[in-house]
Amino acid sequence: MRARPLAIPDVLLFEPQVHADARGFLYESFHQARFEAAVGRSVAFVQDNHSKSGAGVLRGLHYQLHRPQGKLVRVVAGSVFDVAVDLRRGSPGFGQWVGEVLSAENCRQMWIPEGFAHGFLVLSDAAELLYKATDYWSPGNERCIAWNDPQLAIDWPLTIPPVLSAKDQDAAPFATAELYD
């Protein structure tokens, strides 16, 4: 599995070696020692999540304030534009974002460390994501930043208006969001 840092170097894109033939394919989707070598530290995952969304659904930008989650995200059906926003005050990447297309076909995974907001836009008719998290979901600590905040200027590949949850419609602007110190 090859790891490549993105424009914000703490966010990594993992590209596995896929062994494919007429029967199908096989790839190693996770290897603890190789993952930790790539991220440069010990990481303990405590929760796995499975999400399914329809075409045009945009989820995010979500994060947990006092119990931040690192996430290793992959798509097992369909495709998404996956985004991470650096919320760490004092970080060289503070307020910047990176985005990548993750799909069942390209088998890529994105590592989004603690201190980042996460969101995605479904590009296919439907998409299923699996992701590992470094802390448990904590509803009282969950926060949301507006997906279309002009200060962030995320270049979502939208062709139609996105389908949003009520929470995402009412999300805080970046300028007034509670962020990490």
TrEMBL record:
Question: What quaternary structure, including any partners, is listed in this protein's UniProt entry?
Answer: Homodimer.
Q: Which PANTHER family match?
A: DTDP-6-DEOXY-D-GLUCOSE-3,5 EPIMERASE, THYMIDINE DIPHOSPHO-4-KETO-RHAMNOSE 3,5-EPIMERASE
Task: Establish whether keyword tRNA processing is in the entry.
Answer: no
Source species: Massilia litorea
Which residue numbers mark the site Participates in a stacking interaction with the thymidine ring of dTDP-4-oxo-6-deoxyglucose? W137
Per the UniProt entry, the Enzyme Commission number(s) are 5.1.3.13
Q: Which InterPro entries match?
A: RmlC-like, RmlC-like_jellyroll, RmlC_Cupin_sf
The molecular function terms in GO held by this entry are: dTDP-4-dehydrorhamnose 3,5-epimerase activity
Q: Which UniProt keywords apply?
A: Isomerase
Q: What is the lineage of its organism?
A: Bacteria, Pseudomonadati, Pseudomonadota, Betaproteobacteria, Burkholderiales
What protein name does the entry list?
dTDP-4-dehydrorhamnose 3,5-epimerase
